[in-house]
Amino acid sequence: MSTRRLTKNDKAWNQIFSEYNILQKIREEEFYKIESKLINKYRQSRLMTKFDHTANLPAVFKHNNLRILPISRSSYIIGKFSNYKKVVYQGIDSPEAVRFPSYIKSIDYNNLFSESSVLHCAYLCGMIDELIGEKTYPTVSGRMTTDNFSFRVKSIENKTYYNLSVNKSQVEIDGGYESKNYLVIIEAKNTEVEDFIIRQLYYPYRVWQNKLNKEVIPVFLTYSNNTFSFFVYRFEDIKNYNSLKLVKQKHYIINPRKITLDDVKYVFEKTEVIDEPEVPFPQADKFTRIIDLLTILMNTEMSKDDITENYQFDVRQTDYYTNAAIYLGLVKKIKDGKLIKYTLTGKARRIMILPYKEKNMALTACILEHEVFNRCFKVYLNHGKLPSIESIVEIMLDSYIYNVSSMRTYKRRAQTVRKWLEWIINLTQKKIKS
């Protein structure tokens, strides 16, 4: 077992696995059925079984290639199931520009911090109609119950399949949109993801494909840094959970203003370098994940476990990215009794509701006000290319950095410096289709 910090889910599942000898029973019978009332004795089952991404899986599941699926309203099955679909973003740097209806005043398209608001906005801008080529109307959403159905799910370790049956399991649809010939069912996330659990599309698909004489189109939608990314799928075999195939993906952005290198130069020239904060120097390579973290903290403060269990962060990533956001002055820690929680600073709240261009320029300033990033970006402006990792380390050694000592650590942190500066440069190279 890893020595990583254990979440509440980790601890509870470790207890259950130990007390009910689950690993041995899975070796003997290939799976293990468990009731929600048993899980509830240790922690609420709704918190203990919601693993939207592989990163959310408890340690005992990860280390033993185990996954979990609901098979009724009150029971689950644990086995070596191939549960998740990887997401690869292609063409996201060339999103299609769309207009927001000027007469709509009850939604601010720069202020979308929930899946429901993202869906409302996407529909109002005609993205869903354009996606399938027909006029659609919102018809279904929320919780519902499946009929009884059977299906096959692939083993994660070999080419064999498990045969499973579901008896009135609860499902939830973020949005359903019906046209003359189709029903589009959408699972939405307000962050970029690396994968998602197929069940969130498959179970609703089975509900509605059995009820309608229309094609049901499963769609996965992510919203990150003002970009709507749609992944349109098809189940090639209704009884095969793993037959989900990508048909197409499209990316949209509302009323964008392009960012040029001159815009970034202007921010660089007017940004003053601040004293280095006494917090860990960042090790968090994907700057888009920092933006996503700010997005999920817009609605409420969260503990480390909240962030780890509900979004695509593992324990270590939660530490890295919360520390990186604190370093930038965008997140702060607060005490809720004995519990430490994370919340946005006033500066972050002001930035996150800005339009696309202004928001990204403000975030760029947050990066460039730190000496190492500022000096490295100056190299880029002077020479047309970013400094190497070795050169970045030299700049770091010549600057004040809090609590970094070993050369190995310097190199890891230098990688983050380079990645964040690449993010800034890529903003100027985004090709927005009008």
UniProtKB/TrEMBL annotation:
Coiled-coil residue spans: none
Domain DUF7226: 289-428
Protein name: Translation elongation factor
Organism (species): Halothermothrix orenii (strain H 168 / OCM 544 / DSM 9562)
Domain DUF6997: residue ranges: 79-253
Domain DUF6996, residue spans: 10-78
Entry-linked Pfam families: DUF6996, DUF6997, DUF7226
